[in-house]
Amino acid sequence: MEVLGGCYEQILFGFSIQPAENWEVAPDFTHHAHSASLSAVAVNERYVVTGSKDETIQIYDMKKKVEHGALVHHNGTVTCLEFYGNGHLLSGAEDGLICIWNTKKWECLKSIKAHKGHVTSLSIHPSGKLALSVGTDGTLRTWNLVEGRSAFIKNIKQNAHLVKWSPSGEIYVVAIANKIDIYDLETASISGTIATEKRISSIKFITDSILAIAGDEEFIRLFDCKSQKCLCEFKAHENRIKALYNFKMEGLHILVTASSDGYIKAWNLDIDKIENAPSLLCEVNTKARLTCLAVWLKKDFETEQIPNEATPSSSHVHEAEQLSLKKKKTCWTDSNKPSEGDGQKATLKRKSGNMQKKKKLQRLK
């Protein structure tokens, strides 16, 4: 597995971790990825993509360890990136656009003017048929990805900065400053609220009912989404925590954390004894101001991320649209359909005109 960390210093770090060898960490590569600080990173089975304040999305082929090119479409900081499987990528930016990308040919299938302000966060439903987005226009928006159009707009009257589906897709959470509203998919209404003292910086579902929350402080808290009670609190870093990432591997629930103190750490969560602080598996000091985090998982061992078999059935989607979604396969809109964006042509900008001369990622010394 490869732990990836982006930072203010415009660098993407890669660290190889060997779970079978006592979680030994080895520096793998360091890459001057952008001309401005990194703001987002996402992974699928083959690629890593990074977004930046330089308005570009850089692509890396992790199997070949080479740069693959850059996507140049957004006019503003790329704020969020999320893959769905190995075929699609969604990107959101401060220009208010959400772009749907085909990751086979790296073509922009659809460019949607999603928010009047910035797009601050997006999340794809496990079925791949819906997505949620929040922005600085005070709205929470639901998107029909089958049709490539808006399905529902909710005025939450505040600027949310994070949104996330649960693994089953039955609930979703929206973070506004230092609170998290928990929404039920069936009713599209708030079923509970979690409040913290500090502004929330990252959220991850450990299970369908356990939510990990990090903020502008050194602590991580695990909450029960049903009761909104704090199940566990532990000090993870010496400075504010910037990003969380989690996955299951060979029966273990792994939580990876990144902080402004420069450290990336991996923790083992015991779900049966969730009230106990997790055990530290490994850590590495990047000596950089980290901003974003992801883990690229090789298929050498059993891993599990977010399941993709849920079916949306929300009042966010009208009854006729629910029928449409049930009938159709998860086949996202293609480039033959008109764009709702500003008409820009997206380009895949190669680092080298010769495909045989792709620049390899520089190994750390």
From TrEMBL:
MF terms in GO: kinase activity
SMART domains hit by this protein: WD40
- Segments annotated as WD repeats: 31-63, 71-111, 112-153
Q: What biological-process terms (Gene Ontology) are attached? A: negative regulation of signal transduction; regulation of signal transduction by p53 class mediator; ribosomal large subunit biogenesis
Q: Where is this region: Disordered?
A: 328-365
Q: How is this protein annotated for GO cellular component?
A: nucleolus
Locate the compositionally biased regions of type Basic residues. Answer: 347-365
Where is it chiefly localized?
nucleus
Q: Name one Pfam family in it.
A: WD40
Cell location:
Nucleus, Nucleolus
KW Nucleus (keyword) present: yes
- Write out the entry's keywords from A to Z: Kinase, Nucleus, Repeat, Ribosome biogenesis, Signal transduction inhibitor, Transferase, WD repeat
What biological function has been recorded for the protein in this entry?
Answer: Negatively regulates the PAK1 kinase. PAK1 is a member of the PAK kinase family, which has been shown to play a positive role in the regulation of signaling pathways involving MAPK8 and RELA. PAK1 exists as an inactive homodimer, which is activated by binding of small GTPases such as CDC42 to an N-terminal regulatory domain. PAK1IP1 also binds to the N-terminus of PAK1, and inhibits the specific activation of PAK1 by CDC42. May be involved in ribosomal large subunit assembly.
PANTHER family in the record, alphabetically?
P21-ACTIVATED PROTEIN KINASE-INTERACTING PROTEIN 1, PAK1 INTERACTING PROTEIN 1
What is the protein name for this chain? P21-activated protein kinase-interacting protein 1
Species of origin reads Notechis scutatus
